[in-house]
Specification:
CATH class of the largest domain: Alpha Beta
Radius of gyration: 27 Å
Strand content: 15-25%
Helix content: 10-25%
Largest sheet: 5 strands, mixed
Structural class: alpha+beta
Number of strands: 14
Low-confidence stretches: 341-345
Number of helices: 9
Mean pLDDT: 93
Number of domains: 4
Bound molecules: iron/sulfur cluster, FE2/S2 (inorganic) cluster
CATH architecture of the largest domain: 2-Layer Sandwich
Distance between the termini: 58 Å
CATH topology of the largest domain: Alpha-Beta Plaits
Shape: globular
Amino acid sequence: MIQQGQEEPAAIPTVNIDGADVPFTGGETLYEICSRQKKDVPTLCYDPRLDPFGGCRLCVVELEGARNPVASCTTRATAGMKIRTATEAIERHRRTLMELVVSENRQVDVDELAGYASQELKTLVERYDANRGRFQGRQSGQSRDDDDNPFILRDYDQCISCYRCVRVCAEQEGDHAISVMNRGFDTRITTEFNGLLRDSDCTFCGQCVQTCPTGALADKKALKHADVPGEIEKTRSVCPYCGVGCSVDLLSKGDKLVGVLPAMDGPANEGALCVKGQFAFGFVQHDDRLKTPMVRGDDGELHATDWDHALDRAAAGLRAVVECHGREALYAIAAGRSRRQFQSD
Ligand code: SF4
Ligand code: SF4
Ligand code: FES
Protein backbone atom coordinates (compact mmCIF):
# COMPACT_ATOMS: atom_id res chain seq x y z
CA MET A 1 0.00 0.00 0.00
CA ILE A 2 1.25 3.50 -0.82
CA GLN A 3 1.78 5.52 2.38
CA GLN A 4 0.96 9.20 2.52
CA GLY A 5 3.88 11.20 1.13
CA GLN A 6 5.28 8.18 -0.77
CA GLU A 7 5.52 8.41 -4.55
CA GLU A 8 3.78 5.79 -6.66
CA PRO A 9 6.33 3.54 -8.43
CA ALA A 10 6.67 4.42 -12.11
CA ALA A 11 4.64 2.09 -14.33
CA ILE A 12 6.78 -0.20 -16.52
CA PRO A 13 6.24 0.88 -20.15
CA THR A 14 4.82 -1.73 -22.50
CA VAL A 15 4.14 -2.14 -26.20
CA ASN A 16 1.44 -4.39 -27.50
CA ILE A 17 2.79 -7.00 -29.92
CA ASP A 18 0.26 -9.19 -31.70
CA GLY A 19 -2.22 -8.68 -28.86
CA ALA A 20 0.12 -9.18 -25.88
CA ASP A 21 1.53 -6.39 -23.71
CA VAL A 22 5.31 -6.64 -23.53
CA PRO A 23 7.51 -4.55 -21.21
CA PHE A 24 10.56 -2.84 -22.67
CA THR A 25 13.46 -0.69 -21.56
CA GLY A 26 14.18 2.79 -22.87
CA GLY A 27 15.99 2.90 -26.21
CA GLU A 28 14.96 -0.58 -27.38
CA THR A 29 13.79 -0.90 -30.96
CA LEU A 30 10.63 -2.72 -31.95
CA TYR A 31 12.79 -5.35 -33.62
CA GLU A 32 14.80 -5.99 -30.46
CA ILE A 33 11.62 -6.45 -28.46
CA CYS A 34 10.15 -8.74 -31.14
CA SER A 35 13.35 -10.83 -31.12
CA ARG A 36 13.12 -11.17 -27.36
CA GLN A 37 9.56 -12.40 -27.82
CA LYS A 38 10.78 -14.95 -30.41
CA LYS A 39 8.78 -13.27 -33.19
CA ASP A 40 10.18 -14.36 -36.52
CA VAL A 41 10.51 -10.92 -38.12
CA PRO A 42 12.75 -11.23 -41.23
CA THR A 43 15.77 -8.95 -41.77
CA LEU A 44 18.41 -8.50 -44.45
CA CYS A 45 20.35 -5.32 -43.73
CA TYR A 46 20.36 -5.97 -39.97
CA ASP A 47 23.37 -7.19 -38.01
CA PRO A 48 22.89 -7.00 -34.23
CA ARG A 49 26.45 -5.70 -33.81
CA LEU A 50 25.84 -2.66 -36.02
CA ASP A 51 23.85 0.55 -35.75
CA PRO A 52 20.39 0.13 -37.31
CA PHE A 53 20.35 1.15 -40.95
CA GLY A 54 16.83 0.65 -42.28
CA GLY A 55 17.80 -0.09 -45.89
CA CYS A 56 15.98 -3.28 -46.86
CA ARG A 57 12.57 -2.62 -45.17
CA LEU A 58 12.04 -6.37 -44.76
CA CYS A 59 11.55 -6.03 -41.02
CA VAL A 60 8.42 -3.88 -41.48
CA VAL A 61 5.54 -4.27 -39.03
CA GLU A 62 2.10 -2.68 -38.86
CA LEU A 63 1.99 0.12 -36.31
CA GLU A 64 -1.46 1.24 -35.21
CA GLY A 65 -2.00 4.86 -36.21
CA ALA A 66 0.84 4.93 -38.78
CA ARG A 67 -0.08 5.37 -42.43
CA ASN A 68 2.52 2.89 -43.69
CA PRO A 69 4.31 -0.11 -42.22
CA VAL A 70 7.39 0.91 -40.23
CA ALA A 71 10.86 -0.65 -40.23
CA SER A 72 11.06 -2.33 -36.82
CA CYS A 73 14.87 -2.28 -36.72
CA THR A 74 15.03 1.52 -36.73
CA THR A 75 11.85 2.37 -34.79
CA ARG A 76 12.37 2.92 -31.06
CA ALA A 77 9.55 1.66 -28.88
CA THR A 78 7.38 4.15 -27.01
CA ALA A 79 4.83 3.21 -24.37
CA GLY A 80 1.44 2.20 -25.71
CA MET A 81 2.52 1.36 -29.26
CA LYS A 82 0.46 -1.43 -30.85
CA ILE A 83 2.10 -3.46 -33.59
CA ARG A 84 1.30 -6.53 -35.66
CA THR A 85 4.21 -8.53 -36.97
CA ALA A 86 2.78 -11.05 -39.41
CA THR A 87 -0.56 -9.96 -40.91
CA GLU A 88 -1.43 -11.11 -44.39
CA ALA A 89 -0.77 -7.61 -45.74
CA ILE A 90 2.66 -7.42 -44.06
CA GLU A 91 3.68 -10.83 -45.35
CA ARG A 92 2.55 -9.84 -48.87
CA HIS A 93 4.53 -6.62 -48.56
CA ARG A 94 7.66 -8.57 -47.52
CA ARG A 95 7.23 -11.00 -50.38
CA THR A 96 7.11 -8.13 -52.88
CA LEU A 97 10.21 -6.61 -51.30
CA MET A 98 12.00 -9.96 -51.61
CA GLU A 99 11.00 -10.17 -55.26
CA LEU A 100 12.43 -6.72 -55.86
CA VAL A 101 15.66 -7.67 -54.08
CA VAL A 102 16.21 -10.90 -56.00
CA SER A 103 15.07 -9.60 -59.38
CA GLU A 104 18.67 -8.80 -60.24
CA ASN A 105 20.47 -11.42 -58.19
CA ARG A 106 22.06 -13.80 -60.65
CA GLN A 107 22.68 -16.48 -58.06
CA VAL A 108 20.74 -17.16 -54.88
CA ASP A 109 22.19 -20.61 -54.12
CA VAL A 110 25.51 -19.94 -52.44
CA ASP A 111 27.93 -22.46 -50.96
CA GLU A 112 27.79 -22.42 -47.17
CA LEU A 113 31.58 -22.07 -47.09
CA ALA A 114 31.21 -18.55 -48.53
CA GLY A 115 30.67 -17.04 -45.08
CA TYR A 116 28.74 -16.93 -41.83
CA ALA A 117 25.68 -15.03 -43.12
CA SER A 118 25.87 -16.24 -46.71
CA GLN A 119 22.63 -18.26 -46.53
CA GLU A 120 20.38 -15.41 -45.34
CA LEU A 121 19.13 -14.31 -48.77
CA LYS A 122 18.55 -17.88 -49.93
CA THR A 123 16.63 -18.74 -46.75
CA LEU A 124 14.35 -15.72 -47.20
CA VAL A 125 13.75 -16.41 -50.90
CA GLU A 126 12.60 -19.90 -49.93
CA ARG A 127 10.52 -18.64 -46.98
CA TYR A 128 8.62 -16.17 -49.17
CA ASP A 129 8.67 -18.31 -52.28
CA ALA A 130 9.80 -15.14 -54.03
CA ASN A 131 9.32 -15.03 -57.80
CA ARG A 132 12.74 -14.07 -59.15
CA GLY A 133 11.43 -13.14 -62.58
CA ARG A 134 8.69 -10.70 -61.54
CA PHE A 135 10.68 -7.48 -61.79
CA GLN A 136 13.11 -8.00 -64.64
CA GLY A 137 15.11 -5.04 -65.84
CA ARG A 138 18.50 -3.43 -65.54
CA GLN A 139 21.06 -5.03 -63.28
CA SER A 140 23.42 -3.24 -60.97
CA GLY A 141 26.66 -4.52 -59.43
CA GLN A 142 29.98 -5.06 -61.06
CA SER A 143 32.17 -7.94 -59.95
CA ARG A 144 35.81 -7.23 -59.23
CA ASP A 145 37.32 -10.30 -60.90
CA ASP A 146 40.54 -8.32 -61.17
CA ASP A 147 40.98 -8.28 -57.37
CA ASP A 148 43.41 -11.17 -57.07
CA ASN A 149 43.88 -10.97 -53.29
CA PRO A 150 44.10 -14.51 -51.86
CA PHE A 151 41.35 -14.11 -49.25
CA ILE A 152 38.20 -12.25 -50.32
CA LEU A 153 36.05 -12.87 -53.39
CA ARG A 154 34.33 -9.64 -54.54
CA ASP A 155 31.44 -10.84 -56.68
CA TYR A 156 29.22 -7.76 -56.64
CA ASP A 157 26.86 -9.33 -59.19
CA GLN A 158 25.29 -10.79 -56.04
CA CYS A 159 25.29 -7.52 -54.07
CA ILE A 160 21.96 -6.21 -52.75
CA SER A 161 23.35 -2.92 -51.38
CA CYS A 162 22.63 -3.72 -47.75
CA TYR A 163 25.92 -1.99 -46.82
CA ARG A 164 26.57 -4.43 -43.98
CA CYS A 165 30.13 -4.84 -45.27
CA VAL A 166 30.80 -1.11 -45.25
CA ARG A 167 29.24 -0.66 -41.83
CA VAL A 168 31.05 -3.60 -40.20
CA CYS A 169 34.35 -2.35 -41.59
CA ALA A 170 33.73 1.08 -40.06
CA GLU A 171 31.89 0.24 -36.86
CA GLN A 172 33.51 -3.04 -35.82
CA GLU A 173 36.94 -3.06 -37.44
CA GLY A 174 37.29 0.74 -37.29
CA ASP A 175 39.04 0.57 -40.64
CA HIS A 176 36.83 2.38 -43.18
CA ALA A 177 38.64 0.50 -45.96
CA ILE A 178 35.50 0.21 -48.09
CA SER A 179 32.71 2.61 -48.88
CA VAL A 180 29.76 3.19 -51.21
CA MET A 181 30.04 5.20 -54.39
CA ASN A 182 27.33 6.45 -56.77
CA ARG A 183 23.61 5.95 -56.38
CA GLY A 184 20.80 3.78 -57.72
CA PHE A 185 21.84 1.22 -60.36
CA ASP A 186 25.34 2.67 -60.36
CA THR A 187 25.86 2.02 -56.64
CA ARG A 188 29.16 0.24 -56.02
CA ILE A 189 30.98 -1.03 -52.95
CA THR A 190 34.43 0.36 -53.43
CA THR A 191 37.79 1.11 -51.87
CA GLU A 192 39.40 4.53 -52.00
CA PHE A 193 40.08 5.38 -55.67
CA ASN A 194 38.11 2.23 -56.58
CA GLY A 195 41.25 0.09 -56.41
CA LEU A 196 42.14 -3.38 -55.18
CA LEU A 197 41.73 -4.42 -51.55
CA ARG A 198 45.43 -5.03 -51.12
CA ASP A 199 46.16 -1.43 -52.13
CA SER A 200 43.61 -0.11 -49.63
CA ASP A 201 43.58 0.12 -45.83
CA CYS A 202 41.98 -3.35 -45.64
CA THR A 203 43.48 -5.58 -42.94
CA PHE A 204 41.78 -8.68 -44.41
CA CYS A 205 40.03 -9.33 -41.12
CA GLY A 206 37.19 -10.95 -43.09
CA GLN A 207 34.36 -9.33 -41.14
CA CYS A 208 32.77 -7.97 -44.31
CA VAL A 209 32.77 -11.52 -45.70
CA GLN A 210 31.11 -12.94 -42.61
CA THR A 211 28.30 -10.37 -42.51
CA CYS A 212 27.46 -10.44 -46.24
CA PRO A 213 24.01 -12.07 -46.58
CA THR A 214 24.37 -13.04 -50.27
CA GLY A 215 27.85 -14.43 -50.87
CA ALA A 216 28.80 -11.31 -52.85
CA LEU A 217 31.79 -11.23 -50.53
CA ALA A 218 33.07 -14.74 -49.91
CA ASP A 219 35.94 -16.61 -48.27
CA LYS A 220 38.21 -17.69 -51.15
CA LYS A 221 40.28 -19.99 -48.92
CA ALA A 222 37.24 -21.93 -47.71
CA LEU A 223 35.61 -22.06 -51.15
CA LYS A 224 38.67 -23.92 -52.47
CA HIS A 225 37.25 -26.87 -50.51
CA ALA A 226 33.73 -26.60 -51.92
CA ASP A 227 34.24 -29.81 -53.90
CA VAL A 228 35.45 -31.88 -50.95
CA PRO A 229 32.66 -34.44 -50.46
CA GLY A 230 30.72 -34.63 -47.20
CA GLU A 231 28.58 -32.55 -44.88
CA ILE A 232 30.05 -29.52 -43.15
CA GLU A 233 30.55 -30.01 -39.42
CA LYS A 234 31.14 -27.17 -36.98
CA THR A 235 33.43 -27.53 -33.96
CA ARG A 236 33.79 -24.74 -31.40
CA SER A 237 37.43 -23.98 -30.67
CA VAL A 238 39.85 -21.19 -29.83
CA CYS A 239 42.14 -19.53 -32.38
CA PRO A 240 45.68 -20.91 -31.86
CA TYR A 241 47.56 -17.72 -32.68
CA CYS A 242 47.83 -14.87 -30.13
CA GLY A 243 46.90 -14.57 -26.46
CA VAL A 244 43.51 -12.90 -27.03
CA GLY A 245 41.85 -16.30 -27.42
CA CYS A 246 39.17 -15.54 -30.03
CA SER A 247 36.43 -18.17 -30.26
CA VAL A 248 36.02 -19.79 -33.66
CA ASP A 249 33.88 -22.46 -35.24
CA LEU A 250 36.09 -24.78 -37.26
CA LEU A 251 34.43 -26.13 -40.40
CA SER A 252 35.34 -29.64 -41.43
CA LYS A 253 34.29 -32.24 -43.96
CA GLY A 254 35.24 -35.70 -42.77
CA ASP A 255 38.73 -35.30 -41.34
CA LYS A 256 39.57 -32.24 -43.46
CA LEU A 257 39.52 -28.71 -42.08
CA VAL A 258 37.85 -26.60 -44.77
CA GLY A 259 37.23 -23.21 -43.18
CA VAL A 260 36.91 -21.03 -40.10
CA LEU A 261 33.97 -18.94 -38.90
CA PRO A 262 34.23 -16.35 -36.14
CA ALA A 263 32.02 -17.18 -33.15
CA MET A 264 29.48 -14.36 -32.85
CA ASP A 265 29.06 -15.25 -29.15
CA GLY A 266 32.81 -15.54 -28.48
CA PRO A 267 33.47 -13.59 -25.24
CA ALA A 268 36.84 -12.27 -26.41
CA ASN A 269 35.96 -11.43 -30.00
CA GLU A 270 32.15 -11.20 -30.47
CA GLY A 271 32.39 -12.18 -34.12
CA ALA A 272 35.67 -10.47 -34.95
CA LEU A 273 38.87 -12.15 -36.10
CA CYS A 274 42.15 -10.98 -37.62
CA VAL A 275 43.58 -12.14 -40.93
CA LYS A 276 45.48 -15.02 -39.30
CA GLY A 277 42.57 -16.41 -37.30
CA GLN A 278 40.22 -16.05 -40.25
CA PHE A 279 42.28 -17.24 -43.19
CA ALA A 280 45.57 -18.81 -42.07
CA PHE A 281 44.37 -22.30 -41.21
CA GLY A 282 46.36 -24.07 -43.94
CA PHE A 283 49.13 -25.01 -41.49
CA VAL A 284 46.84 -27.47 -39.70
CA GLN A 285 47.10 -30.03 -42.48
CA HIS A 286 50.37 -28.88 -44.03
CA ASP A 287 52.89 -31.64 -44.77
CA ASP A 288 55.65 -29.69 -43.02
CA ARG A 289 53.70 -29.28 -39.78
CA LEU A 290 55.56 -30.51 -36.68
CA LYS A 291 53.47 -33.14 -34.98
CA THR A 292 55.87 -34.17 -32.19
CA PRO A 293 58.54 -32.31 -30.18
CA MET A 294 62.03 -32.39 -31.72
CA VAL A 295 65.41 -32.32 -29.95
CA ARG A 296 68.84 -31.99 -31.50
CA GLY A 297 70.97 -35.14 -31.05
CA ASP A 298 74.74 -35.55 -30.74
CA ASP A 299 74.77 -35.89 -34.52
CA GLY A 300 73.59 -32.27 -34.82
CA GLU A 301 70.27 -33.31 -36.38
CA LEU A 302 66.72 -32.82 -35.03
CA HIS A 303 64.98 -36.02 -33.90
CA ALA A 304 61.37 -36.62 -32.93
CA THR A 305 60.85 -37.37 -29.26
CA ASP A 306 58.20 -37.26 -26.52
CA TRP A 307 57.21 -34.25 -24.40
CA ASP A 308 58.90 -35.49 -21.20
CA HIS A 309 62.25 -35.81 -22.91
CA ALA A 310 61.86 -32.50 -24.77
CA LEU A 311 60.94 -30.59 -21.59
CA ASP A 312 63.82 -32.20 -19.66
CA ARG A 313 66.22 -31.09 -22.38
CA ALA A 314 64.81 -27.55 -22.36
CA ALA A 315 65.06 -27.37 -18.55
CA ALA A 316 68.65 -28.62 -18.62
CA GLY A 317 69.55 -26.02 -21.24
CA LEU A 318 67.98 -23.17 -19.24
CA ARG A 319 69.68 -24.36 -16.05
CA ALA A 320 73.03 -24.37 -17.84
CA VAL A 321 72.49 -20.74 -18.92
CA VAL A 322 71.74 -19.70 -15.31
CA GLU A 323 74.78 -21.57 -13.95
CA CYS A 324 77.06 -20.06 -16.52
CA HIS A 325 75.71 -16.45 -16.76
CA GLY A 326 73.48 -15.90 -13.69
CA ARG A 327 69.69 -15.71 -13.42
CA GLU A 328 69.53 -12.23 -15.07
CA ALA A 329 70.58 -13.94 -18.27
CA LEU A 330 67.08 -15.42 -18.60
CA TYR A 331 63.94 -13.59 -19.68
CA ALA A 332 60.57 -15.23 -20.27
CA ILE A 333 57.22 -14.11 -21.59
CA ALA A 334 54.02 -16.14 -21.68
CA ALA A 335 50.71 -15.68 -23.45
CA GLY A 336 47.74 -14.61 -21.32
CA ARG A 337 45.96 -17.78 -22.38
CA SER A 338 48.66 -19.96 -20.72
CA ARG A 339 47.86 -18.67 -17.24
CA ARG A 340 44.96 -20.94 -16.42
CA GLN A 341 46.95 -23.96 -17.39
CA PHE A 342 49.87 -22.92 -15.15
CA GLN A 343 47.50 -22.28 -12.24
CA SER A 344 45.78 -25.64 -12.46
CA ASP A 345 49.04 -27.54 -12.80
S1 SF4 B 1 28.73 -6.88 -50.72
FE1 SF4 B 1 27.33 -8.08 -49.41
S2 SF4 B 1 27.34 -7.03 -47.43
FE2 SF4 B 1 28.19 -5.60 -48.95
S3 SF4 B 1 26.46 -4.37 -49.61
FE3 SF4 B 1 26.65 -6.08 -51.05
S4 SF4 B 1 25.31 -7.67 -50.26
FE4 SF4 B 1 25.60 -6.20 -48.60
S1 SF4 C 1 38.42 -7.47 -44.61
FE1 SF4 C 1 38.09 -6.21 -42.76
S2 SF4 C 1 39.30 -4.35 -43.13
FE2 SF4 C 1 39.07 -5.38 -45.13
S3 SF4 C 1 37.27 -4.43 -46.07
FE3 SF4 C 1 36.56 -6.28 -44.98
S4 SF4 C 1 35.95 -5.54 -42.93
FE4 SF4 C 1 37.20 -3.93 -43.87
S1 FES D 1 16.36 -5.19 -41.39
FE1 FES D 1 15.18 -3.45 -40.90
S2 FES D 1 15.27 -2.29 -42.70
FE2 FES D 1 16.59 -3.96 -43.13
